[in-house]
Amino acid sequence: MSEKPELELFENPHPERDYCVTIRCPEFTSVCPRTGQPDFGEIVIEYCPDKLCIELKSLKFYMQSYRDKGIFYEALTNEILNDLSGACGPRWMKVTSRFSPRGGITTEVVAEYKPEK
């Protein structure tokens, strides 16, 4: 998969209430742009929906689109946050990427979206 699949959304069943949705993608894979080696990790998405929620099957295909993509962790985390927050317009969103050790080093990147008031 080279292109990002379209994210499907559905209406928030309780837009009158603040609540948190946590989605874990424990088998995430991308590619190191320097070495071409696979990077394995977990992506955790937390958000407070406003009018729309993210449909999980389309999210799965979106995440799989990174399988062969060469991208640094920092760019990856922020790109996912931009794509997801841009699609569903949440009240708040946080994306955390935790990657498996490589050469004895682990990396965690956290990016957060808060709409301007």
Query: What percentage of the residues does DSSP assign to strands (E)?
Result: 35-45%
Structural class: alpha+beta
Rg over alpha carbons: 15 Å
First-to-last CA distance: 37 Å
Number of strands: 6
- Tell me the helix content: 10-25%
Q: How is the biggest beta sheet arranged?
A: 4 strands, antiparallel
Number of helices: 2
Order of strands in the sheet with the most strands? 2-3-5-6
Mean pLDDT: 95
Shape: elongated
- In terms of per-residue confidence, which ranges show pLDDT below 50 for 5 or more consecutive residues? none
Order of helix and strand elements from N to C terminus: EEEEHHEE
Write the layout of secondary structure elements.
Layout: E1 9-11, E2 21-31, E3 38-48, E4 52-54, H1 56-64, H2 73-88, E5 92-102, E6 105-113
Antiparallel strand pairs: 1-4, 2-3, 3-5, 5-6
Describe this structure in words.
With 117 residues, this protein is an alpha+beta fold. Helix content is 21%, strand content 41%. Strands 2-3-5-6 form a 4-stranded antiparallel β-sheet, with helices on one face. Strand 5 and strand 6 (105-113) form a beta hairpin. It is elongated and about 45 Å long.
